[in-house]
Give the backbone structure.
Amino acid sequence: MPTAPVTRADEPETTAETPYLELLPSPAAQEEPAEAVRISPSSPSEVPVAIVMTPAQPTARIHWIGSFVDLRHPSDLYEDIVAGTPNLVVVDARYAEAYAREHLPGAINMPARELDAKTTAHLSREALYVVYCWDASCRASTKVAHRLEALGFKVKELHGGLETWRKQGYPTER
């Protein structure tokens, strides 16, 4: 979070000949130009001056650069698969061709481009969906996880994807 600038002790303090604080409205905040509000101090000596702008109306959407979806570690997922944990669905977010070559045991294929309310209507809302793709840099699993979450499913993303799964020595299906 941004903080207010701090003046070092060895820096000269900025002063002005006009002994007042000026509050200026933002041009975007109002349709018609507004006058500045001046606040005069009680003494006519030189005083530090600051110009305070009122915030403008939002002009752009801010996007979160992160993930709200929880991550699942491969060892935890492997334990759940071996134990036959009920209501667990492993989702491969890669293209069908990549899924056909290799995927996690029991995974279903759900590429992001094919995911909507109609194609997920048959899926259980009670299950936990663990989504993965190639590796940590692949964003397909993030897209699928966010879409599933938006459709009302419980979702986790596999940490590190297929690459980390293989590096940990866990089996895959072909």
Q: What stands out?
A: The domain at 70-167 is CATH 3.40.250.10 (Oxidized Rhodanese; domain 1).
